[in-house]
Amino acid sequence: MAADEDGTGRARIVVEIAWVDADGSVGRHRVELPAGACVGDALAALRGHDRGGALLDALARGELTTAIYGERCSAASILRAGDRIELLAGLAVDPKLARRLRAGRRRGGAGGGPDSGPDGAG
Question: Which of 7, 57, 72, 110 has its CA 20 to 30 A from that of 89?
Answer without folding.
Answer: 110
